[in-house]
Amino acid sequence: MTATTERAVGSDVRRIDGPAKVRGRAPYAYEHELDAQAVFVALVQSTAARGRVTGIDTSAAEAVPGVLAVLTHENAPRLGDVADEIVVLQSDRVRYVGEPVAAVVAETSEVARDAAARVVVRYDAQPPDVELRTDRDDLYAPEQLMAGFDTDSVIGDVDAALAAAPVSIDVTYETPNQHNNPIEMHATVARWDGDGDAAVLRMWDANQGPHNLVPVITEAFGITEDRLHITSPYVGGAFGSKAYTHVHQLIAGMAAKVTGRTVKLELTRQQMFTLVGHRTPTIQRLRLGAQPDGTLTAISHEVVEHTSQNAEFAEQTATATRLMYAAPARRTTHRLARLDVPAPTIMRAPGETPGMYALESAMDELAAELGIDPVELRLRNEPDRDPERDVPWSTRNLVACLRQGAERFGWAGRDPRPGVRTDGRWLVGTGVAAATYPTRRRPSAARIEAVPGKPYVVSIDASDIGTGAWTALTQIAADALRVPMDQVDLRIGDSRLPKASGAGGSTGITSWGPAIIAAAEQLADREVPAGGVTVTGESGPGEEAERYSSHAFGAHFAEVRVDQDSGEVRVPRMTGVFAVGRVVNATTGRSQFLGGMTMGLSMALHEESVLDLARGHYANHDLAEYHIAANADVGEMDISWVDETDDRHNPLGAKGIGEIGIVGAAAAIGNAYWHATGRRVRDLPITPDKWFR
Ligand code: MOS
User: Fold this and answer.
1) Is 636 among the catalytic positions?
2) Which residues, given as ranges, of the chain have pLDDT below 70?
3) What's the pTM?
4) Ligand 1 pocket: which of 178, 179, 181, 346 to mutate (most atoms <8 Å of CB)?
5) CA 20 to 30 Å from 232, out of 112, 131, 136, 378?
6) What pLDDT score was predicted for residue 12?
């Protein structure tokens, strides 16, 4: 091995998994066990939103040649004590439209689907209650929010400060139900290897970290950890929907148990609108008070959102508001309506995405009210410490992002007047919004095996959901071991590898990277004998979490054009500048920002899952009717980052980049829409019809 002083981290390395993916040699979950003569599962889903199954007739389905089993709550294996949101085929209760009430296992997927259509289910059903409104009398305050955040926060006398404010606004924004739609549908291949109490549940599964699933699946099937082996080397996107165990993994395990075969279960695109979560809709009231010079005197952010009958999911929508800007009086609240809907889940920057849409739209409205440039308004309210926790920032470079973004975008000299620029039929405007996302690290372990003459084998149950983790972790390992990248043989995506946190919360690099570095440091102290040596390193949250407030920041600028005849909205260009600590890989990093900004554009203009209030289902449950931004919707994306290293947070100086790209992007577009037209659309998405109301 040749030692090298060249650094891989920070250089622009192509994806090491790229060639295998292009050649079709990177197996995704469903592509495993091609020679296993697998059998297939099709689901029967409830048409009732709330009630009980009073009878299931499976005889016609069972009579179809090739059908091996029809599982219902009457005959399915009993599961251990799993969370309510994923308990499946265990009782006659129905809690949302689409809940699985039967599962057909057959020799081919076609037979399974055909037979599933022949299962007859009778219900004792009540009308669905799926409408989120602020005047519901059953809104309640959850005990706490996701990630352990307090439900409410109050500092000072907000109402008095608002009443006394020389300038104030009081506006309400709404964001719709949205669905995670990774390209790869959720899929599980399951088989029980061996017999009786020694049988091992073998799974190949699309997820955001095999270890994330281990506690629930072992509990469900009453097995010890050594009897579960989940492999997940390549994943085709996730955005949060593959972070946790869902019902299909349990059904696959049950079907494999009952038939004794290798079982394949891939959700249809339609089923992804009920079985793997969604982003809760929100209604958010924003009140801001300010001095004439723009200094904020009061901030109030009150959120109403939904949760489900079978699980409480309390999204932390207003938590970013607690730290973005300082004001002597501040308040945030979260209230939930428990509806007959599937359990919501995390979706790219859960909380920050809808919450910062509202806050950053309100800041724009306040800027207009004050007659102050919206970039300048943010600069004037830049806090020098975390105003909520009263601790210093580890680094906060929002100002640099705003300045650099304004420069790149050509913001200077912008005419603040709305609705006055035309280009033919098009009204033209520009908008800005800020972004933030927390920086955290989670417990993770990594192992390095060093054998003379061979590449180092670096093992960690990390997960690459398309982000570039294969490449970035190889770069980090190469630098930590002081060798070129081809001397690192990385192994990830397997529950038998050292336990690591999942790919979520933008914590992958900040959690896995330091674990690999810690292992390499162990190795540096050891002599490598002829037979080789194996070391393990660990990393987890340290005192940095107490001493500092650590967040990534960013600024979005957008140009919007609105057709005065049709209401069509176009976004010809966006500029995003981010402060995210050290960027490990410029190519994959840029790709994360680009994906996030595109998803924000999609949120601003397209994405909305429509609940049918009478039937209780998501009416537009496919990609024909649930619109996402397509290539032609995306114009020029100018993406850059400021030179920043956050050495106070972790030894890599990185902050995590998977989510911040979406945060604030929709607000910049909404603000530009107002600047173009003079009209505020406060309920996303900004579809053409809203021009005519
Ligand atoms: Mo992301 S929503 O934390 O998977």
Assistant:
1) no
2) 1-6
3) 0.97
4) 346
5) 112
6) 84
Which one, of 545, 550, 547, 446, lies nearest residue 501 by Cα?
446
In angstroms, rounded to a whole number, what is the distance separating the alpha carbons of residues 498 and 128?
Answer: 45
**Which atom of ligand 1 sits closest to the CA of residue 350?**
2
**CA 658 to ligand 1 center in whole angstroms:** 8
Count CB neighbours of 431 within 10 A: 25
Class of domain 441-540: alpha beta
348, 352, 510, best to mutate for ligand 1 pocket (most atoms within 8 Å of CB) = 348
- Sign of dihedral through CA atoms 330, 682, 559, 662? positive
Both tokens assigned to 134 = 């602020």
pLDDT at 528: 87
Do residues 58 and 102 touch, judged by C-beta distance below 8 A? yes
Q: Any alpha helices (H) in 381-537, and if so which ranges? A: 398-409, 469-481, 508-524
Amino acid at 69: A
- Nearest atom in ligand 1 to 502's CA: 4
Does the domain spanning 32-127+182-238+242-275 belong to CATH 3.90.1170.50? yes
Could you tell me which residues come within 8 angstroms of residue 355 by beta carbon, excluding any fewer than 6 positions away?
A: 282, 284, 301, 303, 316, 317, 318, 319, 320, 321
Q: Rounded CA gap, 245 and 218, in Å? A: 11
Which residues contact ligand 1 via a Cβ below 6 A? 208, 238-240, 243, 346-348, 350, 504-505
What length does the chain have?
A: 693
CA distance 573 to 405: 13
Pairwise CA distance, residues 495 & 476, whole Å: 21
| Average pLDDT of every residue of the chain | 97
In the chain, CATH 3.30.365.10 covers 146-179+278-439+547-691, 441-540
CATH 3.40.570.10 is the classification of domain 146-179+278-439+547-691: no
> Is residue 107 exposed (0-12), middle (13-18) or buried (19+ Cβ within 10 Å)?
middle
| Ligand 1 center–CA 570 separation, angstroms | 28
